[in-house]
Design a protein that fits this description.
Layout (H helix, E strand, L loop, with lengths): L1 E6 L7 H13 L4 E7 L4 H7 L5 E4 L11 H20 L1 E7 L4 H6 L3 E9 L16 H8 L4 E4 L2 H10 L6 E3 L6 H8 L11 E5 L8 H11 L6 E5 L5 H11 L4 E5 L5 H5 L3 E4 L8 H8 L4 E4 L2 H6 L5 E4 L3 H13 L1 H14 L7 H12 L4
Parallel strand pairs: 1-2, 1-4, 2-3, 4-5, 5-6, 6-7, 8-9, 8-11, 9-10, 11-12, 12-13
């Protein structure tokens, strides 16, 4: 039985943690002895998600961080004891660093026949791992210790090469989406809406998502059209966005905050909007497509990989671009209906789950190499 170690910082959270859940669930059905190691998450949560044949280790990841406190020091000593035990006495067939940065540094030191790293971000726009490495060359050297480094999109792969260089082991594998689970959750709740046309957007409330720009667009379009926008998510820009909504007196914009189950709200929409400066993967875009909801997305490299013009509109990444895209839907209801029909006929939802998981596991199983 092959031994596999999967390392992440969180057990529960966002897109990376969805990958963790989907990957472990899939691998449990294969001949693997699985160990999952995380910084945040508890045993009871873990065994609600996975069967008891999967092993759980909780530690703390401090590589690359320089803050100091007594509690931090104690936690670091405890965590180092676990890590040194793993580094010195355990050998795995496969060791996976599920997230870039500190986790990647840790797993580079594990004894394993194959090591796999993961990059989920666009380094051109959000190279956050600079806080973990002294130089780009140091990060490049770390990545070269891996057999494969999985990038979640072609755009993410290009960003790594342009920002730190090519380690020579990059490949692209799209994140799996459990389409059946998404649709089941979408049917768990009936969401009432009043507007004839409803737009929904989902994401962190930060500058990168450009929701302030989207609200400016809504304010302008309100002069001619009646519609509603729901914003799902939480972040440091929430107060700023709500102040702007209040300033413009926008009664048709609702900030719903973070929802444990956003899918009923996404399914209730006529169209999903992505206004981001950039996307490394576009999880919410693909979830909307699974739910049969067309997309309007501001232009960026990853979006071009995800949005087919038959059931989505890619606009210029600007005020005028977003305004034009939304206006085209509001002035042509038949366009929206056509995209929904095309999406229903053209989008093969099962391909986003089992096919992607097979392609991911093939990275270390050599079926696709």
């Amino acid at each position: 039985m092959k031994r596999i170690l999967i390392r992440n910082d969180l057990l529960l959270g966002g897109g990376v943690e969805n990958v963790l859940f989907n990957l472990v669930t899939y691998l449990q059905k294969k001949d693997y002895n699985i160990t999952v190691m995380v910084d945040k998450g508890n045993r009871s949560e873990f065994y609600k998600m996975f069967n008891n044949r999967t092993h759980f280790i909780r530690t703390h990841c401090f590589v690359g961080y320089r803050k100091f406190s007594i509690k931090r020091f104690i936690d670091k000593v405890y965590s180092r004891m676990i890590l040194y035990t793993i580094w010195g006495f355990h050998k795995y067939d496969v060791a996976i660093a599920l997230k870039e940065g500190p986790v990647t540094i840790e797993i580079s030191n594990v004894k394993a026949k194959k090591k796999i790293a993961w990059i989920h971000t666009d380094y051109n726009c959000f190279h956050w791992t600079k806080s973990c490495f002294h130089t780009n060359e140091e990060e490049l050297t770390c990545l070269k210790k891996y057999d494969r480094v999985i990038c979640v999109s072609k755009a993410a792969k290009r960003s790594v090469i342009s920002e730190i260089g090519d380690p020579g082991n990059l490949c692209v594998r799209y994140n799996p989406l459990n389409d059946e689970l998404i649709r089941n959750k979408a049917n768990n709740e009936i969401v009432n809406r009043s507007a004839d046309t409803l737009f929904v957007t989902v994401g962190r409330l930060d500058k990168h998502k450009q929701y302030d720009l989207l609200i400016d667009v809504v304010n302008e379009l309100n002069k001619k059209f009646k519609f509603e926008l729901w914003v799902i998510g939480e972040g440091d820009q929430r107060e700023t966005l709500e102040s702007k909504i209040s300033e413009f007196k926008l009664k048709n914009v609702k900030v719903l905050g973070r929802l444990d189950n956003p899918y009923p709200y996404m399914k209730a929409a006529d169209c999903f909007i992505c206004s981001s400066i950039s996307e490394s993967f576009g999880l919410s875009i693909q979830e909307s497509l699974v739910l049969g909801v067309p997309v309007i997305a501001a232009d960026c490299e990853a979006v071009k990989e995800l949005v087919d013009p038959r059931y989505g509109i890619i606009t210029a990444n600007s005020f005028e671009g977003l305004k034009s895209g939304i206006e085209s839907v509001l002035t042509s209801p038949e366009l929206l209906l056509k995209m929904k029909r095309e999406l229903k006929d053209a989008f093969q939802a099962r391909e986003v789950y089992l096919s992607r998981l097979k392609a991911i596991s093939a990275v270390w199983e050599n079926e696709y190499e």
